[in-house]
Design goal:
By secondary structure, the protein is an alpha/beta fold. Helix content is 23%, strand content 32%. The chain has one domain: Rossmann fold (3-Layer(aba) Sandwich), CATH 3.40.50.2020. α1 crosses α2. The mean pLDDT is 93. The structure holds inosinic acid (IMP).
């Protein structure tokens, strides 16, 4: 697996340090409120697990899973919920936790869908942001890192279901990503 790595962009330590800062900011912004964290499966699983453990205010955790149809490294923009929330989010403060915002289409769909349930507020926290690729402008309230237009894996992010369990975030060698992948 390590042989497939082209370049490590963010080390486990970089990620951990940034997550502590994000958690501190979130804890202070939501002081006195009950926060509902909505983790978007599967990519944000490690991010959510680490973030929530550094949050110092009461917090409820729920999960949602979206499937988007598209190539291995591209989003088609067509999405549907494949695992819905268990919590009732009406009149509650929700924070969507995403792994990466790329075109913004997935997050846009998710926000439109969740707003229909009338939450008290809705904000977004993403570990990674690839702003160059944006098709739909989406508000990002908490951002871990801005990255270039590169396809990345690790720390929850996958390529064809693999590489999620790596502790760092990296690019893969071009022969692994293949012709459907993008490296620039
Ligand atoms: P968007 O709809 O284009 O913003 O894409 C969002 C989803 O595409 C993310 O939640 C990821 O699952 C996936 N994705 C986008 N870029 C990458 C990447 O560089 N590596 C792995 N998955 C990605």
């Amino acid at each position: 697996m390590l042989n497939d790595v082209e370049e490590i962009l963010l080390s486990a330590e970089d990620i951990e340090n940034r997550i502590k800062e994000l958690a501190e900011k979130i804890s202070s912004d939501y002081k006195g409120k009950e926060l509902v964290l909505i983790s978007v499966l599967k990519g944000s699983m490690f991010f959510t697990a680490d973030l929530i453990r550094h949050i110092s205010i009461p917090v409820i955790l729920d999960f949602i899973a979206i499937s988007s149809y598209g190539e291995a490294t591209e989003t088609s923009g067509v999405a549907r919920i494949i695992k819905d929330l268990e919590e009732n989010i009406e009149n509650r403060h929700i924070l969507i936790v995403e792994d990466i915002v790329d075109t913004g289409l997935t997050l846009g769909y998710l926000m439109r869908t969740l707003k229909l349930k009338n939450p008290a507020s809705i904000k977004v926290c993403t570990l990674l942001d690839k702003p160059v690729r944006r098709i739909l402008e989406v508000p990002i309230d908490y951002k871990g890192f801005e990255i270039e237009d590169k396809f990345v894996v690790g720390y929850g992010l996958d390529f064809l279901g693999k590489y999620r369990h790596m502790h760092f975030i990296c690019t893969l060698k071009p022969d692994i990503i293949g012709i459907e992948g993008r490296t620039a």
